[in-house]
């Protein structure tokens, strides 16, 4: 199965998916302020927000802001804080007279509140009771207050209590639910001094919070914190009316709301919580059903209930959530005694376990409603809405705000689309947890859907219309495709391209994709941002913007065109997108989206192990790690410590070691202890041969290396490169430690790349020798960072000058002329002495050096060969310099272990063994061609047909630098090499280079490249001969390929696209 590059969302004709609708919502270009806010994820809500202002932050912030503004004391119970409620009030009250008290929830938890309300003798007590005391808790916390609530003193003008109850409760399976069941007993036992308000939507929660501070009595306000108050959506910041004291004085306030048919004969009565929101959705699609939502439980108003209930209603079913099936709820008795003439009243107690099912599935609740009311559900008619989801982990921090940026497209514009975003967390989904962000789009003119909480809409259908997988590591372990509807598009933001994404898919995922016709796309956001980014662009913002544009393209579906995406982008971002032009960004987003070819599956063998079962996602946390979690992991910085740090990692491996990846049985698993500072898949190989190929008297040390790979799992393809993770010179490291005053035996703890909280410990000597790039070349930023540590004013100014644009000439002289290292700069500016921990941060790590592999694994087996030349030079001051890795490799002894990794290359064999291969190598550029020749020799030895093999090699002297000369002569004699053009430039008076040898063979080259055999040309080595080699090929195509100069040039360009003209130059 393949995914065509016309991404579509099912139901494109609905009011929330057409391009015209989106264009309408963005009919006016964003203002500069609005464009800035796209990436400004700071919450705009505060105690100073002007009432009536439209805000887009979570309403929970609004409730905290009102508490900070209208309370004398705020008591934050631990259960509320664990639910992510109450974390901002301390910041907003800092420097004010408002006291914030954090306390634990336990039996009699309200005693402290009662004491504060009844105090009056001490100065502190007088200050605390002068005004309103606010408490933040949850339904479980409110239940703990039952014995105390009846003893709360009556409200007075100087002391009253407001309890803001965030309705979110953990279940026995650790999932979170918005059930009101734990609070049932507490609400039923309250006295007449308490006003009880219950909200279910975001705007209701904001309004009722303001009402809480408008009234003169005690107030309990219960709101849906599992969903509604955590949503990012439009709401109006409410006004506190100080001129009223009771609900009766509030204009336009209703104790009850009625939803459904005006002639309904059956009605449900529920507390105005999330279950009531589900009931209202059912009533909209079930003729004959009515729903009464109780917004004010106390004071109870029978008159208001009778007014709200249509005269046609004959049966009322009171539905209450209770901790268990036998407990009493607060509602049935009040309804029963409200003197509803001619109406039969029946109660239904929903125990916690069953209510959890109802909150997760509206279909299950619909079946219950149909059973008790005999009114069939109308959900099959379908509701008009679209839902998008984003799946990420803290490891994908650079794209942490992609859901908010996408939601911003709809939230900041007027138009026919109402949007709300809600993030849920699964703390156990990976080593760091996972975030599922749902963006729900509904028609603005749909009075019911546009106000319904996201969780209520999501329960209509758990699967979404479009899924973006921000962290592709979740593909291997979790049932990500179960989250989307049949035929829906899934976007995977991953590096490596479509084949790499396809290779990551486990069998169960492929079965789901193929069975349900899911369309999978990928976009390499890192690559796209790196290609178009500038020095002035913020890479994280640019990555987010590019991913956003790709999502817009998928949202537009079949109507998407490059022009349409550019127009929308201009209206959202303006002419500049995160530091690059709008046209450039849109072109990159359009070109980078690729369909993923899904492989077909062979049937499992009878004795095969069953495929791994993928894990489902659960909603079990309101944040990850911290109540103020914003999607970005707390960075781990290097720290200097003692041997105890290393000992802890040995004793408690489970806590400190990265989790080993789950791979197939025959796959290689990297030992986490093998260079945990490296992100590549790494192998530990053994040096068996280190042989110099050039004479000792020759000024170039070219040497041949062989490594034993047996038992390591290392596999490589012809033409690939070996990444060598070299070490710094031991003597130089010890000399630096002595000069810097560092103890080489002390222990330093360093972060592990790819793991936000993982660290590893090693000695300072090993860190400087194997990881920290102490003898590498410093960038400009290093001089600026070092200036902050310089104690000498002149040195600090000099460092800042080099780091500034004005110091470019000085920096160039130091970098390219003197080729200074980090260690040299530190010696040059001795007053700048960062600690070793800081030094590790500002220097960075040693990068692997990659060398073309000079062997074919099919021919040599468990071995990998390299061809290396030592890099050394002398600076203008006369100091010798050495290439860090070639120096390390040149000093290897047989038996020594080396850490390596594999890197793909453009040097690949042609698909057909009969295609002619033309190779041109200069010096150590011969390395990959040795592998090519070995492979063709193996084919010949096996009696298999093989096409012509042409080899051009160039160096200075045949007697000194004819690399692998004896091997080559044998291959020529055996006919493996069809033709050889050897150019030794210093052996003749007139210098002869490989391009001269190629011109001698123009007829052969022209026919091989332009003829039906489809010859392939490869060049490996330094860049300087490329123009002459190119000219030689052009001439051969003109003379013997029947082409003009222009046609020949275009032909070579076409060969590049076909991977038949391949250059690997350096």
Automatic annotation (TrEMBL):
Biased composition (Low complexity): 10-31
EC number: 1.8.1.2
UniProt entry tagged with the keyword NADP: yes
Cellular-component GO terms for this entry: cytosol
UniProt enzyme class: oxidoreductase
Cofactor: FMN; FAD
Listed name of the protein: assimilatory sulfite reductase (NADPH)
């Amino acid at each position: 199965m393949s995914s065509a590059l016309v991404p579509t969302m099912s139901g494109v004709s609905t009011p929330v998916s057409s391009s015209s609708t989106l264009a309408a919502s963005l009919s006016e270009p964003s203002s500069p302020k609005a464009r800035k806010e796209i990436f400004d994820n700071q919450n705009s809500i505060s105690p100073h927000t002007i009432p009536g202002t439209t805000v887009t932050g979570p309403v929970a912030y609004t409730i905290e802001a009102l508490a900070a503004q209208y309370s004398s004391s705020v008591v934050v119970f631990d259960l509320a804080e664990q639910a992510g409620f109450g974390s901002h009030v301390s910041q907003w009250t800092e420097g004010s007279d408002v006291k914030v008290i954090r306390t634990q929830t336990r039996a009699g938890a309200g005693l402290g509140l009662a004491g504060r309300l009844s105090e009056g003798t001490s100065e502190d007590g007088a200050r605390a009771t002068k005004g309103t005391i606010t408490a933040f808790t949850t339904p479980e916390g409110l239940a703990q207050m039952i014995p105390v609530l009846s003893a709360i003193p009556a409200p007075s003008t100087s002391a009253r209590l407001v309890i803001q109850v965030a309705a979110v409760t953990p279940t026995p399976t650790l999932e979170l639910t918005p059930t009101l069941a734990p609070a049932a007993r507490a609400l039923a036992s309250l006295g007449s001094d308490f006003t009880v308000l219950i909200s279910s939507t975001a705007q209701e929660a904001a309004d009722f919070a303001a009402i809480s501070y408008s009234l003169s009595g005690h107030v309990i306000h219960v709101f849906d914190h599992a969903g509604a108050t955590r949503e990012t959506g439009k709401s109006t910041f409410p006004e506190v009316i100080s001129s009223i004291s009771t609900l009766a004085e509030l204009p336009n306030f209703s104790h009850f709301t009625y939803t459904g048919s005006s002639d309904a004969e059956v009605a449900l009565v529920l507390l105005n919580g999330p279950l009531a929101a589900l009931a209202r959705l059912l009533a909209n699609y079930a003729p004959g059903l009515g729903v009464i939502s109780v917004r004010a439980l106390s004071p109870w108003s029978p008159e208001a209930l009778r007014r709200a209930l249509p005269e046609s209603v004959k049966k009322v079913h009171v539905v209450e959530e209770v901790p268990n099936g036998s407990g009493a709820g607060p509602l049935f008795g009040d309804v029963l005694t409200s003197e509803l003439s001619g109406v039969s009243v029946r109660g239904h107690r929903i125990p916690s376990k069953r209510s959890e099912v109802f909150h997760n599935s509206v279909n299950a609740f619909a079946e219950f409603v149909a059973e008790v009311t005999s009114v069939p559900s109308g959900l099959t008619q379908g509701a008009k809405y679209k839902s998008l989801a984003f799946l990420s982990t803290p490891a994908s921090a650079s794209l942490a705000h992609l859901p908010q940026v996408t939601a911003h497209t709809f939230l900041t514009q007027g138009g026919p689309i109402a949007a709300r975003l809600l993030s849920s967390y699964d703390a156990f989904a990976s080593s760091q947890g996972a975030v599922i962000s749902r963006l729900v789009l509904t028609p603005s003119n749909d009075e019911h859907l546009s106000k319904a909480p996201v969780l209520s809409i999501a329960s209509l259908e758990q699967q979404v219309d479009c899924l973006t997988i921000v962290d592709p590591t979740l593909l291997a372990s979790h049932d990500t495709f179960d989250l989307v509807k049949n035929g829906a598009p899934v976007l995977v933001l991953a590096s490596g391209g479509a084949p790499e994404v396809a290779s990551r898919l486990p069998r169960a995922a492929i079965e789901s994709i193929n069975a349900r016709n899911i369309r999978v796309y990928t976009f390499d956001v890192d690559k796209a941002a790196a290609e178009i980014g500038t020095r002035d662009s913020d890479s994280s913002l640019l990555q987010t913007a590019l991913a956003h544009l790709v999502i817009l393209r998928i949202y537009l579906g079949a109507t998407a065109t490059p022009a349409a995406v550019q127009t929308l982008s201009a209206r959202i971002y303006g002419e500049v997108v995160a530091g690059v032009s709008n046209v450039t960004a849109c072109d990159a987003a359009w070109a980078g989206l690729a369909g993923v070819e899904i492989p077909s599956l062979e049937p499992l063998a009878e004795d095969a192990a069953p495929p791994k079962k993928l894990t489902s996602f659960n909603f079990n946390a309101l944040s990850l790690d911290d109540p103020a979690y914003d999607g970005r992991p707390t960075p781990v910085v290097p720290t200097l410590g003692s041997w105890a740090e290393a000992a802890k990692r040995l004793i408690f491996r489970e806590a400190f070691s990265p989790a080993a990846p789950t791979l197939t049985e025959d796959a290689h698993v990297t030992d986490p202890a093998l260079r945990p500072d490296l992100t590549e898949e790494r192998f530990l190989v053994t040096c068996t041969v280190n042989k110099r190929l050039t004479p000792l008297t020759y000024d170039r040390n070219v040497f041949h290396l062989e490594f034993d790979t047996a038992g390591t799992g290392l596999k490589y393809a012809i033409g690939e490169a070996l990444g060598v993770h070299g070490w710094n010179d031991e003597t130089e490291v010890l000399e630096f430690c002595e000069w810097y005053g560092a103890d080489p035996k002390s222990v330093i703890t360093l972060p592990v790349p790819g793991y936000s909280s993982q660290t590893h410990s090693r000695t300072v000597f090993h860190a400087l020798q194997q990881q920290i790039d102490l003898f590498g070349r410093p960038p400009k930023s290093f001089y600026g960072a070092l200036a902050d540590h310089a104690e000498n004013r002149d040195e600090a100014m000099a460092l800042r000058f080099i780091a500034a644009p004005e110091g470019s000439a000085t920096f160039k002289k130091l970098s390219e002329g003197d080729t200074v290292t980090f260690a040299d700069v530190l010696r040059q500016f001795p007053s700048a002495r960062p600690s070793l921990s800081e030094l590790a941060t500002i220097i960075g790590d040693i990068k692997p050096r990659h060398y073309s592999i000079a062997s074919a694994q099919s021919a040599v087996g468990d071995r990998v060969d390299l061809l290396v030349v030592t890099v050394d030079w002398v600076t203008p001051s006369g100091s010798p310099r050495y290439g860090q890795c070639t120096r390390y490799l040149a000093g290897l002894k047989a038996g020594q272990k080396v850490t390596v990794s594999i890197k793909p290359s453009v040097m690949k064999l042609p698909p057909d063994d009969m295609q002619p291969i033309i190779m041109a190598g200069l010096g150590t550029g011969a390395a990959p061609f040795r592998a090519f020749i070995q492979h063709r020799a193996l084919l010949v030895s096996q009696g298999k047909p093989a096409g012509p093999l042409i080899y051009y090699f160039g160096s200075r002297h045949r007697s000194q630098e004819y690399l692998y000369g004896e091997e080559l002569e044998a291959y020529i004699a055996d006919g493996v090499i069809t033709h050889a053009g050897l150019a030794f430039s210093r052996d003749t008076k007139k210098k002869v280079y490989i391009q001269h040898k190629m011109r001698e063979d123009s007829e052969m080259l022209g026919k091989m490249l332009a003829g039906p055999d489809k010859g392939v040309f490869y060049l490996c080595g330094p860049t300087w001969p490329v123009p002459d080699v190119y000219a030689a090929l052009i001439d051969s195509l003109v003379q013997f390929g029947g082409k003009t100069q222009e046609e020949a040039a275009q032909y070579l360009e076409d060969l590049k696209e076909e991977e038949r003209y391949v250059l690997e130059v350096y």
